[in-house]
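Let us begin with a simple case.
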Amino acid sequence: MATAYIVDAVRTAGGKRGGRLAGVHPVDLGAAVFDAIAERNDFDTSKIDDVITGCVSQGGQQTGDLGRYAVLASKLPDSIPAVTIDRQCGSSQQAMQFAAQGILSGTQDIVLASGIESMSRVPMGSTAMLYMKEGMGNYKSPRLEEKYPGLMFSQFAGAEMIVQKHGFTKADLDAFALESHRRAKVATEAGRFQKEIVGIEIETPEGKDIHLVDEGIRFDATLEGIAGVKLLQEGGSITAASASQICDGASAVLICSEQALKDHGLTPRARIHHVSVTAGDPVIMLEEPLFATERALKKAGMTIGDIDAYEVNEAFAPVPLAWLKYLGADPARINVHGGAIALGHPLGASGAKLMATLLGVLDATGGKYGLQTMCEGGGQANVTIVERL
């Protein structure tokens, strides 16, 4: 049976909205991680069969098959095709899974899965707002309205529904947020991110610099400071401090067949053990990773105890908290190096970004199996399980 291997995984350090990466065009962010993959791995890049790029806000500077433009801006050969996909926050995780499926089918040997999102240059929701301003409406068609009357499928509302359903308090969310920053701080100061982060040259008021540290980490975060942030909605529990940070970034994962490893003398870091995607309730929406993980483990013939490290995207604190509670998972194994609350959530780039971090956690801890999942718009969730080699 064919096997898909991860040879390398890289990401940029996150940039805050309007921060250190805001001056970099999203195409060039993508080109930078593509170049890093080529430079770090000695192989004939003309043999890459495809580049699959996740991006959520495909408008403005991220329009027109963003992945292809990033290939053209990079040092990769212009002969390499590329496609840009959108599965909301899971876009580049889906890119990895499509890449793996191409390898497993025997139709491809080398695929570069990636994600790009500049939330400074193409703000979240800006493409939808443009058409609403022009009087062209939004995704809520008459038939969709008939089926879900009065509902706008709000992720914020879904997150608050999870808080209520699973019995969390604001104090629970604030404590989780603080731990995300603490873990990210520890990982950064210990150099745990060095292997996965690609330096990006930027212009600052002081001159040129290389962006190497995730800008969103609050190294001096306190529970009192987090608790004092105002609520996102009256009567709710979630604040900006217990939600993922708006972020600029790019990521890339090199996935190969066994034959490609032999042909190019490449050494794999991990084997892709399982990939799946599910969908459920589009209203509470962000709860789907719970059920998607349960199903994935069953299909893989595993239990949560078999997994040594998990990356569960911190879109909002109640999502990983509910995931831990539902699956009876070990809190010490989740987002070991911090999550999106501290490190940022560059939408379409987050899936491949999490894989780069997950592999780093497995290396640091000596773990064998890792699992990543994330909530996605419309009530969907991807699950990827890897085995470190």
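The second case is a distinct protein. As before, the sequence precedes its structure tokens.
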Amino acid sequence: MSAPDIIRDLQLAPHPEGGYYRETYRSAQALTNSAGQPRSVSTAIYYLLENADKSHLHRIKSDELWFFHQGQPLEIIVLRDNQAQRIVLGLDVAAGEVPQAVVPAGAWFGARLRHGAGFALVSCTVAPGFDFADFELAERTALTREFPQLQELIEQFTMA
């Protein structure tokens, strides 16, 4: 299948951070967050990147688990503790790829195809559940002030 076929068949829509997604699960069970607001215990999405698409640097207030399904390896960049961590999501475990990865709550992160061509279909699960109220898209200048040694990487993963 091609990326357009998957986008059509899974009914994916453009995501504000880049790529395509569709929410597939939102727990009916809720909890109360620190602000006293109800929050689903867990949520899940399909997420697809193709060719030069990127998940631009962003952060959320919950842990996010990524699961690889098919396509090309996906490079996830995580900025925290004053450094960048690179995780390659894929199925070639012998080459250092992992089929599942965790991005900790509050970390800045983004993703792109490792080799820049083809597509990757993944799923992401967020716990406590995702809410756009917790979503923060990185602003290049502010993030460069926070991580000056990572300026080149930040420029690659932020919108101009």
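The first strand starts at residue 13 and ends at 14. The CA atoms of residues 82 and 89 lie 22 Å apart.
Keep these points in mind for the review questions at the end of the chapter.
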